[in-house]
Amino acid sequence: MLLRPQSLLLLIAAVLFDPARIGRVKSHQESGPWHCDSDAGIRIQSVFRPGIITVDGKVEDWKDVSGSDFALLPALDPDADKAYNAGKMTLKVVHDGNEAFFMLQIDGNYAYTQGDSTKCASVALMLQIGENATYHRMGGCEEEQNTCTNKTCLGHEVDIMHFSLGNAIPGRLYGRNSIDNRQGYGGDRFGNLNDVYAWNPHCRYLDGLGPSGNDTTAQNDWQGSWWHSSLTDHSGFIKENSPYASEGQKGTYYFEFSRPLRTKDSLQQDAQFTIGKSNKVSAAFWYPEEGKSWHGSAHYSISCDWILLDFVPAGSSELSSIAQSSSWNFATSLSLFFSVVALCLSMIIGHRLSTMSRTANFIPMENL
């Protein structure tokens, strides 16, 4: 029996992104009892900054945005003695009232192997969807791979954006694209910037795919780009320029992402952002240390629990002082303007009165 192109694509995607292939079950078995010493009071602010960010991997446009620094700890064993030793992750978030923008900055020597994501750096963002979704165990549903469904794991949904660099050219835009979105699933055939949802580490799927069947209304709502400070680019890289820089050069990785605050998701597979409210978020980083390939669970995270992300309305937080300063400057300028106008009016009136007085005292010569 021949399959239609759309059905064939979804079948291929289901195989490629099967949870057992993304990260095999055994790779997520923890070696001992779970422990977490996170600071429950950590918060990140997404302030209102319209029109300042271009998602191109180059981060000069973020220089005036405040960020938060996090030590990167092993996700399955968050011990400070085992932290990523090249530096911390800086996380910055802004919004423009319609889109949310994220920037992740991590120190690390340049590593890139074309076509092999496990020998390149990789990052992910995870957001809570369901009210019962925990950070630990990626949603925390107790069901197994063959029993997890949108009913048995209801309330444990998490939203994941995962970006692997093996086929992503630095400075180019990946993720949301019309070709994959027409197929109605969250994959990205060009750069592996994928929109995923999960209930636990063994039950992860591209948006639109799942154990209950496929739904072609799903979309990949994320876009993103990456860069490394060792790269030198004057006209834009193409695939033939790979590996784009020399292996092992010291520097910093930069990742930029954007996504609508609200998506058209009706499947409980996307987190939704609301200005004035908070979301629970985490960020992860994979890196081929000592040139060795990384595997699914061998990643670092900014915390062993959720971090609160606040979407700040316009005029709040740090912008309030800017607004107050602008208002003061406007009021001062307006006052000065009216003072000058009043002075000019008084001079004109005085001149007119003086002229009228001289005219009133004028006596025609014939009356002398």
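^ that was protein a. below is b, sequence first then the tokens
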Amino acid sequence: MMRETFKPAASKKKPISSRVVKKDTSSLSTRLQQAEDLVKERLMLHQPVPDQHFPRGLVLSVMKRLVDERLGAMEYSPACSAVATDLSESIKEAVKSLSSGRYKLICCVAIGQLHNSAVSCSSRSIWNPDTDTFTEYLFKNQHLFTLCVLFAVYQE
């Protein structure tokens, strides 16, 4: 007596070994090429020392002109905080055109009442004395004082 063994019906799928799996290599190669280009660009742009030093004298004259025009005969009021913000942005925008794009600019403007008041300001940062610098201007009239400090930090 012979036993019959059960055989499953034939599958219509091809065996795994004969299947062709296509990978989208074009997008991978494009991304690799873009990454290589970015690395090359950054290496070419790396410049540890600026071509030109930051023009401190010119920046000081710009700061002085902007502050004197804006605050010449102004009296101290609570609205001075908005004036300080606007003045800070104006100084930064004016100085951006004078220096190379590698300098990051930070501008601080403090306005205070000039009536029996005292103010002490300080700042700390990581600093490279060969490339980084600052410029400051102190303005006074009969009613208020203004301290403007512009930091120029060189980005390699």
